[in-house]
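U., I forgot to send this yesterday:
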Amino acid sequence: MSSFTQIADFRAECDCLAEILEPLSDDDFDRATLFKEWTIHDVVAHLHIFNYAADASIHDQSAFDDFKQFMAARRGRLTLLELTDEWLEGKRNRAVYDVWREYYPEMCERLEGVDPRMRVEWFGPPMSARSSITARQMETWAHAQEVFDLLGLDREEMDRIRNIVFLGLNTFGWTYAVRGMEVPDTVPALHLTAPSGDVWTWNADETANRITGKAVDFAQVVTQVRNVADTSLDVEGPIATEWMSMAQCFAGAPETPPAPGSRHKA
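Result:
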């Protein structure tokens, strides 16, 4: 069975982050980002343990069940970061980077030949293996933004961001449902320019609610790494405006997007 493109896209996203992390000193990993004051260590540790969970959900149900039990047993008394550090048995900074850097290529190799339609468990509803790896790419891209911002670097974006844009569109209803709100019947039209210059369009027949601009800006809003006011998106219509004010393409409890101006490159 042939592989699916999201595997290579996820690996490329990890490689992009690894390139800027590799030169850092051990002390650099203690620097705080603008995302909830998470340090670079916190970002890499978080990415690694959920890479492990996604890998286990596909290849080792028993290991995934053990991971879920570990999480559930500590949720009430430990923060997510404390829980993560306990799971990593005290490893920190470059030691965690080394574990993450070694693990994700092996994970991608194990994915070759997996049926992309295979249903796998997660912390919410089951999903396809393809969706699981798309989610890993999304989270890697989003959390990497915090590191790029902290280091004052611009990321060279690629058209693999289309996976994240499509995830953002597919979670239109989730943004409302997770907040206990009625999901609108109308899904806004998207007219987005890819990093390559191609134009990606969805729901073109919808004219009253439209979002136009850069695909990167849209991905930043749905992953909540930027407030929509800090992008160049042109948002028209009440439903499109409401969606962009609270868009959330990731699982978990409802999260409030960052305030205008609060997330930016150093």
